[in-house]
Each structure stands twice: as C-alpha cells, then as structure tokens.
Amino acid sequence: GGADFGADLGSTEDFGADLGGGDDLSGGTDFGADLGGSDDFGADLGGGDDFGADLSGGSDLDSGGTEDLGGTSDQDFGMDLGTMDDMGLDSSAEGETEASATPAGQEDLGGLEDLGSFSSGDLEDMASQAQMSQGIGEEFTDEELATIRTEIVDFPQELRKAIIDAVVNEKLSHPDQRMLMNMIVDQADPDQIADFLEPRMGFRADTSPPDVRKDGVPIIYADEFSPEALGRKRRRAKMMLLGLSGVVLGLLGVFGGLLLYRNLSIQGMYESGLEKLQEARQAAPDRKTELAREAESYFQRALESDDGVYNVEYLNRYGIAYLKAGFYDEAFYKLFGKIEPEYQWNDPSFRAPLINVAENSRWYGPSERKEGYQTTFVDKDKLPRKVQIPGAYIVSRLRDREMDRENLMALGRFHSHNSRRFLSTEEGQKYKNDQLGIDYYRLITTLLNQPNDPEALAGIGKIHYNREEFGAAARKYNEILETHPAEVEGHAGLINTYIELWKRDGDPRFVIARHREARRLGLEEELPIYVVTKLAGFYIDLDPTDLRIKYQVDPVDAVSGHDLDQNVVHLLKIVFDKEEKRDEETIKGSEYGEGFYQRGRYLLSRGESARAMRQFENAVRTDPWHYPALTEMGEYYQSVLDFSRAEQYYRAALQTYESHKEDYGNRPEDETLMDGDIGKIYFNIGSLLYLQNAGGSDPTLMPRSRIYPFRAERAETEETANRRSQLLQAAEYFDTALEKDLKDSDAIARAHYRKGWIRYMGSDFESALNEWNKLDSSYDAVHEDRSVLMGRANAAYHEDQLSYSLGNYLKLKDELETESIRISSPDAQNRSHRLVYEQLTQVYNNLGAVYEKQYMEKKEAGASQNVLDSLQEQAMNHYWKSVETAGRIDLPAEIPRQNIQLSFPRNGQREPLLDEWLNPMLEELEVEN
After folding, report:
1. Which is more confidently placed, 311 or 47?
2. By residue range, what is the domain housing residue 664?
3. Which secondary structure element, helix H or strand E, spans residue 285, and what is its range?
4. Where are the beta strands (DSSP E) in 557-629?
5. Do 544 and 672 share a domain, yes or no?
6. What's the mean pLDDT in 225-251?
7. 3-state secondary structure 634-662
8. Of 161, 192, 225, which one is at a domain's C-terminal end?
9. Contact predicate 638/687, CB 8 Å
10. Helix, strand, coil percentages in the chain from 3-state DSSP, rounded to 5
C-alpha cells in the first residue's frame, strides 16, 4: 500500500479529488487554494462542523474506519502480517497446492462454485454497478480492475460473499465502496477487509481457510498449516513485532529523554542565572554583587554542559540582563566579547567593527580554547586583535559567519544606554557612545538588508529622544509609519515624543491627533504600557477650556465620544488590564506602579484625596522606587496640617531617591523618576519648618506669634530664639532645593521669597533684597504681589535706599486704597478685610517714616525751609492716616502714635519707627491656590 495520504484515499494526485471525487475544493491546484483561502480550516473544507462530512459529502469519517486507513499503509502492523509469505498467510492457489499435494488447475477457483451465482459475469455486474455510482471505478485503471478480480478470488468464501453483497446491493456508501476497492487493489489482508466491513455490514465475515475444495474433496492441512496453527503463528508474530517495536520505542524514548533532559537542564541553568540577575536589579549593593556571581556561575555551568558551545541567544539575553543590573563590563563581554587590544569604544567617530578571522588563524573550538588557543581577527584597520572571551557579536561573525539581528539590536541598546549609573560611572562612560549605537542599528537596515526594520528605526529614534533631539526622533518614527502605517513602534514613539514637545511649548494638538489616529487604527491597546500611562498623565494635566479656546480643539473625541476625563479613565483601564513581556520579566498592569501613580493624580485633580492616597500607596507597594508617589502623600498631609506625618513621607521619598537614583533609566517608567522634581522634596521639608515657625494668620501657618527683624538690644524669649534657629534650617533646605534644580515654578518663587523673608527677619536686609530681586525672573506677579512690594520697601528703607523704598510704598498705597474702597463694610473677623486694612495702616505709617527720614537728611544737607515743611506735612498726614485706618477695623495703632509723639524734632539719632511685620506668604500665589 502507498504511504502517502493521497494514495490511501484513492491513489490520485489531486488532493481535492482524494477528498471526495471532485476536481478541486476551490478550483486551485495548491493546498492553500483547495482550502478556500480562508483562515478557518474546517469551514473551508465544506462549511460543515464535521471534518469527515466535508470529505465525503455527507458520511462521517468515523464510519469509514479511521483505523482502516492505517491498514492500507505498509507501515501498519496488520498489513505487514498479511504480506509475510513465511507465515502461511498467503491465500493463493500455490499455498493450497503445498498443503494438499493436489495440483489445482486454472479452473480451480477454491470453492467459488459454492457461491452459486458468482461468476465472471458477477464481477462485470459489480463493475457496471460501480460505474453507475457517482464514478465508482472511474479512478481505477484496467490493470487495477484486473487486480481486484484476481485478489477477490483468493479471499475466503464468506469474505467474498460479504464483499459482493456489500457492493452489488449498495450496502456501503460510495466513499466506503471506493475505500474497499482501494484496499483490495493494495492487497490488504483478508482480516483487515473483514475489520473494515464489520461495522458497516453488522457482522464479521469468516476469514478462515475452507475445509473442502470446490469439488467437495476435504482439505487435509499439515499441522503447521492448520487454521489453528496459522492463528497461533499470527498471534506470535504480532507479539514479536509489538515487543520489538516496544523495545525500539523504549530505546528511542530513553535516548530522546536523555537528550531532552540534557537540553532542558542546560536551558534551566541559563534561565536560573537570568533570574539571579533579575533579582540583582533591586538588591542592595553587596547582595547585588553576590547575585551577579551566582548568575555567572550558572552561565559557566550551562556552557560547560553544552560542551563549551556558545549560545548566541543566551549571550544576548545575559548581556541585557547584566546591563540592567549595572554590571557593564560583564554585559559587554556577553554582547561583544573581551578582546586585546581594545577599541576606543566611547570615541564618537568610532564605528561598528566589521571583523573577520585573520590569516593564519581560525575559530578554535572549546577544547582548543581550554588549551590556550585564541582566535585572532582583523577589521578595516588590519590590526590583529585576540579574542579573550567570545561574545555574541564575535561568535556570530567569526564562528557562524553571519550577523545576528538580535545581537545588533542589543549592542545598539547597550552603547546608547541612558541610566544614570551608566552615564556617571567610569565603567559605563567607557562604553557610552550614541553614534556607535546608531551604527549598530544601521547595520540591520544595510548589511542585513532590512531598511524598514521597525525596531531598528525605533532604536535610532529612541537615541535622539534621549538626547532631547525631538525633531530628529519624530522624523525617524515617521519613517517607520511611511512603510508600516499600522506599526505600533512608530505610533508609540511619536506619542512619547510629542508629549515631551508639549511639555516645552504647551501645544497639545500633535499628541491628541496622534492618539486619535492610533485609536482609529485599533492600536490603542497595543501601545506599550508606559506610553499608555504617560498619555493618561497628559490628559490629566490638560485644561479643557484652554484646549477649546486657545488651540481650537474639541476636547471630545468625535469617534469615541470621550472627553478628557473619560480619556483618562479609559486609558488607565487599558493599563490595569494590560500585560506586557519585557526582556526577562512580564509587566502586569494590575501590579504596575506608574499606573497607580497616574490614577492617584487623576483622583487628586477631582478632589478625591482619600481615594488618591490609596492609589499612591499602591504605587509604592508595587514599585518601591517610586518616590514621586511618596511626595504626593506628603503634600496631602501637609495640606491638612499634619506636618509630622508629612515630614515622614518627605524623608521616605528622599531616602528612596538617594538609594536608587543611580539605577534610574533601566525601565521606560523610570522616565517619571528621572524627570521627577527632587528639589521639590527639599523645598517641602524646608516649608514644613518655615510654616511651623514663621507665625501669622495665614491658614497654612501654624498659629504662632509674629516674628520681627532681630534687634540685639531687644530681649527675646527662648521660644523665639528656637524658632529663628528652625527658620535658618528651613533656609538651608530652600538653598538645597534650588541647587537641585527645583522645577516647580511656584515652588521656585516661594523658595526665593521665603529665603529673603528669613534673611529679613535676621536683619540681613541686603541679602533679603538680593533674594527678592531674583523673583523678577521666576515670578510673573512680582510687581503685583503685596508681600514682595512690602518686603522690598522695608528692606530698602533699612539700607537707606529711600527713593526705591518710597516707590514701592506708593504703589502699595494706591492698590490698597483701591481695594479698601471696594470693601463697603469692613469686617474685623474677615481675614481678607483685616489684611487689607492692616497693610494699609502699615503703609501709611511707613510712608510717614520715609518722609520724616528724608526730612532729616534734607535738613542736614541744608535744604530750604519750604522743602522741609512739605516733608514734615506729608509725614504727619500719613501718620494720622495710619491711626485713622487702624481704627476702622479695630486694629492697634501704637507705632504711628509713637511716631506722632516723637517726631519733629527727634531727640538724638533715633530714627522714625517702621512697622516691620512682613507676611510670610506670597499673597498672589496663595490667592491662586
């Protein structure tokens, strides 16, 4: 019998014909066309649910005898037994002659006359019937039909009857009839024929040899050829073959199992080492080094078990794992190799070396390397270099004589790595070379002839992105989309880049347009998890009114119907449900710290502080490096005046940052940590000290008595002295915050003002003025903020800058008088009313002091009496206005009253009294917030 599928089903060459006598399932000649070109195999075979039904036009494959299909093959045990001449199973006339010693002529049909009506005419009837039954027999040649006639004659009598009955009376379906004829043509064993007919006919035909000849003469069998003996031989043969097969299969299983165990054990050792390196990423320094040693031990054991044959795939994977764990030499040795002499890897002009085995050298095998042989290679500079430790690049180039794409990707990633440790340590700096990284990516697009490789182009784009060359990055990502419009790498890179551009110029339109395009293409859920999270953060920070009016963009997406809030919720849900494979780890959205952090920010923007705190706690629980989440929690407790708890979170944030800052940059989400405002933490700690000790009526301040500029001649309580000491510590934190590149613009303004305020209260008026002058470049409301104007005026007065002081007081006077007019009924219990009248009282008094001091200077300089009289009049008028204004809201007016009593002329060198209290808070910022 034929061993191929087509032969078994009908000895035809057309698969479609074999499946049911048709020409072609779809009119095509190849297998794919026969299946209809559809993705669904079952549906294309006929649209039915049952595979067998499709093959036969209605009959079930099971009814055709699945096992019998195997019987037509020369690989089937039953078939083998039916063709072994030495076992006496040949039912030919020659066998009968040997058994009876009576020659049988051509007319001897072995008892066929007992069938009565059976003759050659019956065979013709069968052939005729077959021809009328949907092409039965058409597929058989004349030679095959002759074989059918010859073979059926040799079958046992009962089996012949069953065959004729089944075919002539159509007790078999047409496919089964074709199958039966094929089995006869292929000289199947009678027992197999009987097995095939039994489930279809309802009985099993007797296949034992006849007891008498056709002429009635009894057949006497030799003992060894009796039916019982033949049956025993068949059973013994089957047992022998089954036993032999079992032994063969057992041996194959043993050797296969040993080979599989060897491969799995090698793979297992490699994987165990990678797990150690994964663990080392977040371990303490001592533990990190220990884990790296264990990982290398696993690698060497696996290499030795594999007979010293380097596995390029695992070299690449170990290289990236070492890179992320911060072991840069080890990473490079795995990715490229260790050579002597080395190249100048960090030279921007250096390009990827195209190396080849040098003359008089070759690739040495493991045993030769153990004996000290070292392969020598050269590149374009023709300087021979020795391979001390083979890496993936050297192995693929020198041993395999090819370039490995994954290795080129890994080397591009290695040399352009952007973690702080890589950039700051000597070990990393000797490999840092963005141009070399780009060159490795370009080898993929050039030498590997993959000019449109999305990952290679995205790798180049990422290098430009990390260098803040956002225009070049966007061009590279657009290059991907020109060839692959639905490539996720291109869309993700553009969204990421456009968000950074938005942070700088404030224009959100590119981000929104690219996001909506990705959503339209059905790629939104395919974007990397960090990009989706970053996109959610972008929408959290957007102002819908600003978006609609300034940029004329509808905040509602016309396709999805999502407004800004709904976009955030939708994106954060994608993040939570997402799972992403990244190097040696699987990132699950349900355990993704950055996702929880953005969820907390969203809830804060909606005023749901309690729920936001739970999300920030989840962020820290799932990502212990996430110091911005700790900072957010500290700011919440500060806002509710729980300063003690706020300080705990701020200090925890600082400790987290200091412990892990060098490792930031190994993960995409580390971008949030690297861009985090570490200066804000120092500012916040300084603010806690400031708010607890400055004193005043502001609700964000601890209720303390007011502090005034220090006077050595004035005695102070111990409590006031301690407060001054705490304020000096606060100033140091503000200094550190500014040194750490404090990014929050409001915090920068507050830091400068508060530093100046502390200097002012220490009577260091010059330093205070210098600090407040820095607000000109950091605080938009510097010329409107009353606290700044008052502070500058007071400090300038003490520095004898009377004109500058006078200008600030007059500006304050105009603003406060206008504000007081708006207050028709001043309420002493209303904090804003009280503050306006208090400041106006203060300004009037201090203006009087300026005029009186000018009077004293002019008098000493010999000015005219008219000038002196004018200054005296203005001074007295302002003193009295101060007293009058204080009375309107029941404020004390001790300072202006004393100035009235002591003025013109003053005894000795005593100057006019200045009302020196200064609001610790920037008024304009506090009003905004």
Report:
1. 311
2. 592-676
3. helix 285-305
4. 579-582, 585-588
5. no
6. 72
7. HHHHHHCCCHHHHHHHHHHHHHHHHHHHH
8. 225
9. yes
10. 65, 5, 35
